[in-house]
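Check my protein:
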Amino acid sequence: MTFDDLLELARTREEIVGLYVFGSRGRDFMVDERSDWDVCVVLTDPEAREEFDREFPYAHGARVEIVSATLDGIRNELSEHGRYAAAHADVVLDKTGGELTRLLEELEALPRGTRNAVVREALDGYINQTYRSLRYGTRLDAVEAVPYALRTIFALEDRVRPYNKYLEWELRHHPLDDWAADALLPLLDRVLTGEPAAQHELFRLLEGRAREAGFGDVVDGWEPDVEWLRGNGEYRP
């Protein structure tokens, strides 16, 4: 089945209320002749979805990879990871009077009411990995600190962390208020080498943003090592 075949099918079936393209084609990013079509078909209810899945089972590696969903599933069941998959998707068919389009536009944000918990968990994880890297000189801990840092950075602005592939695209097409792509990306590259000065710099920047947003107690939980994490002085002299 080609994408055009699937779209025509969706237009004619009453149980299909929408169709959107996600992934590289949905964002029009890194698309070449090898790129497949990641397509989500939105059904009226779980029973219609089950019937559709039996008729069109998901096939990894197919030219058109079809997944299915319901509006309630998109609204209530997607994880942070799953939300980003549909964020910025290209809505090709919407029979819901715009509800599907509006719903997908909201998926760049964290699930309602979760921001504080996400920031606290991610920030503490970031500091833990940074502490280990600086304390023991372990580059792998510096590398593992970066996903926590990114989750914190985006969660502070109530947004889900983008996939690694789309990080630069996200920063340039949907900029953060406090982090410019041309400053953050080179700094992360330096952190990934295990460079202590870069790790101290990122810590100071993240600490400032976290304190401004009311999460200073998470940082303070790492006393008496906060000043050292900032790059000021030796480790517990």
Q: What stands out?
A: The CA atoms of residues 207 and 219 lie 7 Å apart. The chain has two domains: 3-108, 115-229.
